[in-house]
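Minutes, methods subgroup
Present: GH (chair), OT, SY

1. OT presented the first of two proteins processed in the latest run. Sequence and structure tokens recorded below as shown on screen.
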Amino acid sequence: MNIEEEIFKRANVNYKLLIDYGFKKNKDEFIFEKNFFNDEFKAVITITNKGISGKVIDLQVNEEYLALKTKMSGKFVNNVRDAYKEILIDIKNNCFETNYFISNQANRINKYINKKYKNDPEFLWDKFSGTAIYRNKNTNKWYGIIMNIDLSKLDSRNGEVEIINVKLDPNKIKNLLKQNGFYEAYHMSKKNWISILLNDTVKDDDIFSLIDQSYNLVSKK
């Protein structure tokens, strides 16, 4: 994951704010340029409906400073990288709206839970900043856990994904595991919990129904 993807992965752009911030519109692109690091470098940030990209130009040679796109370290490179990150973070703080989660489906699920059960996600672990739990206010029991993991934890593929774990009747779990998008529970009891991939493989309404079932199960004291 590159620098831009890491910083903006839980953020949605507000296009109305880009021009005021200093972005220039060119057809379908919004472009922002800024000299930094004592005018030795220039950041060029491009935002489209496909996402955000950036590059750093070494103004002494007028070429892209490729060291930032590698794992190269050292005091000078790290200082340039940190200064570039500050520019990106300021853009995020001023032109983007922060989401709790990475995927659109996870954020839609959060809105559903908040509207129906008046629950906000609880982020309990600093080490696992993308993991959130939802608990029944009456019993204090968890009925949903959203987390971001590598897909290799579930099957033979790789890449960062988000899942939701819900608690269900064991017979229900057996039937769901025959369908695409459902997996044996990750980091929970495989007998009573199931993991659902949040990449729109499973329809929102189907997931909402399973969340309701999970909520009802943990409502029993």
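2. SY then presented the second protein from the same run.
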Amino acid sequence: MRNSPKLIALNIVAVLGALVMFFPFLWTVITSISPGASLSSTPSLIPENPSFSAYTELFANTPFARIVLNSLGLAVATTVVQLVTSSLAAYAFSRLPFRGRGVLFGLYLATMMIPIQVLIVPLFVQMKNLGLVDTYLGVLLPSVASAFGVFLLRQAMNSVPRELDEAATIDGAGHFRIFGGIMLPLIGPALATLTVFSFMSSWNSFLWPLIILRSAELKTLPLALAGLQGQYTTQWDVMMAGSVISILPMVALYLFAQKYVVQSVASSGIK
């Protein structure tokens, strides 16, 4: 009972923080169903004549369905590839002893400090030499490996008792059986966390698709949203409708994997 005032205060702060973070999304939804909305209009949480005409116009006048499928396909492919490469690399760094393992892992993590802007030119030249400009494969290849994913999964694998490996080895299991039958089931929360981060990173990617893609039919969602901004005027209800559509898959994915994300962060020691 002595801590009840403190807990009440913390709950109030948490609720206020949640409302502050939720308000931009609420405002986006309200603007999307307010015909003729503009940034200079008087703020109102209750639209006068709510309508879904902005969504209808968005899909009628632009190939938005194809654009959403483009982003969805790239996000799913990127997520699957990163899960495979990161889990295999994490197992090697966690369970396979070899000379220079710590140094190599440190160098691999150091790549996280290199901003993507520094790599744009050499990456574009490499994709051009491979003939992958204006292709989905050209968008996908630079994101095949994830240093953060390897770090996250390695931390999770380090928490798995090595006695399980030894017992499986005595039973005749090899590395691939230990990896698939023991490691992957036990690091499910970390895999779910990496799934969320990988999907969100690909779904929101703007700079690299902008550089590598040229055809209008290959555009991703962030590029299409940027194209909705007019040179002199912008239909903010239509643009906010596109923003709502872009947010919904990420919200659904995070809500589905929220429990696993919390478990993974708590178990991996990430602060």
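Chair's summary of item 2: Residues 236-268 form the longest helix (33 residues).
Next meeting: continue with the remaining queue.
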